[in-house]
Amino acid sequence: MEQWQKDIIVSNKIYLMDNTAYSVKFLDTFVTNEVISKEEKEKMECKRDRGGSTEWASEFYDLIIKKDKGYNILLETCLDKNFAQQAVAKFLTQKAIEAGMRHTLPKIALGSSSSTSSVKGQDQLDSSYDDDSSLPEELNDFVLYGKPLTVKVEEPTEERKPPVNPNKTYKLSPNGKGYAFIVNILNCNGCVPRKGAENDTKNMVKLMKGFKYEIFPEDPYLLYTESKWTKETVLSELKKFKEQCKRDEVDSIVVFVGSHGFENHILTADGQPMHDSEFINPLQDIDSVLLKPVAKIFITQACQGEKPDWMTLPVLPPPAPINHTIHIKAQVPKREAGRDEKCGTYFVLVLVYVLMKFARDTKLHKMLKKMQRYMVLLSKDLKLEDYQISPYTDTGLAEDFYFFN
């Protein structure tokens, strides 16, 4: 693939991931054209089946850019009316024309574009995209000058507030009750200290307090400590948190976990691995106990690289039906999550910024797309393998989720 083609895909990867519709026949076309292998296709299908609505697409585009004819094969396939990928096709066509590469496009692509005027495939799907073409000043100050983020949640005003009765499914502030459980492990046995990550704890606490959530654990020493979060302690405190949520009939839960880690696992202070499901599954029965839907938001700040060869994985908890849940992660599989040793992790900085600025009148799903775009902009000067792409897996969280009523 030529560099200009690679640049288009990498710079707009989040948009492409969001708007590429999954189907087995769509992937089969790329196997036939030898862009991906059968094994790679099966791997993506498994990710999709497990609820990875963006993870499969991230891996798909990582493979596309490695192939000489990947761009044109992608474009021709998206133009096939059998696959309903017209928005992506128009977007790729227009970007190629804007790059002065009209002559390289297949004839079928030029036939789909009546002129060289701006194609609005992207804008039709997300009118806010152009507003996110550059980083906002606060995030740019971090990138350029290493300035820490000042966390202050902007509350609803008469001019900017959620629509009337926005949370039809859940009760949120000020009428509902929200609890946040924060585990941020700064030192893991056998690992280098996570310098700067102490700011993640402070920023998440300020953010959740701004949303009127109560913070757990209540012991400040445990909350802010550098090395007390052993696996035994994590499981014990999570159990206490769950019982507290039941007793107080909570309406919304946020669980933040930060540490060193690898794909789908974090490391506790004593160097023990914990699978994501060890945080997510135990809280799933709260809905049935309280006889109401409880919004459950899980946030994981950890690298997602390969498992160390010497490490033994934990025995996973029994499968649990998962609903009213969304899981937001710092990075896609096989990649490392970035951290500034002064200000904190890139993912938490961007996530906190977006939520504190826009939550007063914007639903969570839309804010997460904005967060993803900012993460790509923050990464634009990095090597492709170092790009920060923060996926989320939605398992039944209602689309009408706002942090404020």
Radius of gyration: 22 Å
Main beta sheet strand tally, sense and closure: 6 strands, mixed
**Count of all domains:** 2
Gap from first CA to last CA: 48 Å
Walk across the major sheet and give the strand order. Answer: 2-1-3-7-8-11
Overall shape: it is: globular
H/E element order: HHHHHHHHHHEHEHHEEEEHHEEEEHHE
Helix-strand category: alpha/beta
Q: Which regions are unreliable across 5 or more consecutive residues at pLDDT < 50?
A: 112-130
Percent strand: 5-15%
Question: How many β-strand runs?
Answer: 11
| CATH uppermost class of the largest domain | Alpha Beta
Proportion in helices: 25-40%
Q: Report the average pLDDT across residues.
A: 84
CATH topology of the largest domain: Rossmann fold
Compute the number of helices.
Answer: 17
CATH architectural grouping of the largest domain: 3-Layer(aba) Sandwich
Domain Caspase family p10: 330-405
Domain Caspase family p20: 176-307
Keywords: Apoptosis, Hydrolase, Protease, Thiol protease, Zymogen
Family: Belongs to the peptidase C14A family.
Characterise this structure:
- The protein is globular, with a radius of gyration of 22 Å.
- The protein folds into two domains: about 5-125; about 130-395, 3-Layer(aba) Sandwich (Rossmann fold), CATH 3.40.50.
- The longest helix is centred in the middle third of the chain and has 17 residues, at about 230-245.
- The chain has about 400 residues and is an alpha/beta fold.
- The strands form three sheets. It has a six-stranded mixed sheet, sandwiched between helices. Strands 4-5-6 form a three-stranded antiparallel sheet. Strands 9-10 form a two-stranded antiparallel sheet.
- The chain is about 40% helix and about 10% strand.
- Belongs to the peptidase C14A family.
- Keywords: Apoptosis, Hydrolase, Protease, Thiol protease, Zymogen.
